[in-house]
Amino acid sequence: MNDTTYPTHPTITARIARLPDLEMSEIKALWKQLFDKEVPTRNRQFLEKRIAYKWQEIEFAKTHPEILERNRQRIEQLMETAMPARKGNKLLPGTVLTREYGGAQHEVTVTADGFAYQGKPYRSLSVIAREITGTRWSGPAFFGMRPMARAKQKKRGRK
């Protein structure tokens, strides 16, 4: 791996150093110029950091376009092979979920079709949780993949 550092152009460094001295109206104008939209927040520190980053990004693109192009190509390759985002946790086959309950250790293996518990196939973690406890449970909550309802209620101040 190459340990090359890419120094920031002195002009950019000076502009960044002057950001705290600018009026908020000037910060907003810079934001509009650089991002072509209204400021998303009044948090000055956030705006200054994003403006500084954008200036550096623009300068880097001028001086090292080959690196940016190589990175763009890598990102495109990753996006082509990446699986689409799904709501919730996607468990890979072979993953073993464990839970101690009733003085016993319970293990569930994720399979291509669902789950396996005590040598039997299941389509749902909730069915397995019900078999273990004898009561209705959210399977993902029972196996610690999702916060349990009571914990959420306590956080909200309910009992």
Quick overview:
This protein is an alpha+beta fold. Helix content is 49%, strand content 12%.
Tally of contiguous helical segments? 7
Give the DSSP E fraction (strand runs of 2 or more residues): 5-15%
Number of strands: 4
What spatial order of strands do you see in the largest sheet?
A: 1-2-3-4
Helical percentage: 40-55%
Radius of gyration from the alpha-carbon trace, in angstroms: 26 Å
Topology (elements, then pairings):
Elements: H1 10-18, H2 24-35, H3 44-63, H4 65-81, E1 96-101, E2 104-110, E3 115-117, E4 120-122, H5 125-133, H6 139-142, H7 149-155
Antiparallel strand pairs: 1-2, 2-3, 3-4
Helix pairs in contact: 2-3
Word description of this protein:
There is one protein chain. This protein has about 160 residues and is an alpha+beta fold. The protein folds into two domains: about 10-80, no CATH class; about 95-155, no CATH class. Helix content is about 50%, strand content about 10%. It has seven helices and four strands, in the order H-H-H-H-E-E-E-E-H-H-H. It has helices at about 10-20, 25-35, 45-65, 65-80, 125-135, 140, 150-155; strands at about 95-100, 105-110, 115, 120. The chain has a four-stranded antiparallel sheet, with helices on one face. Helix 2 (about 25-35) packs across helix 3. The longest helix has 20 residues, at about 45-65. It is elongated and about 65 Å long.
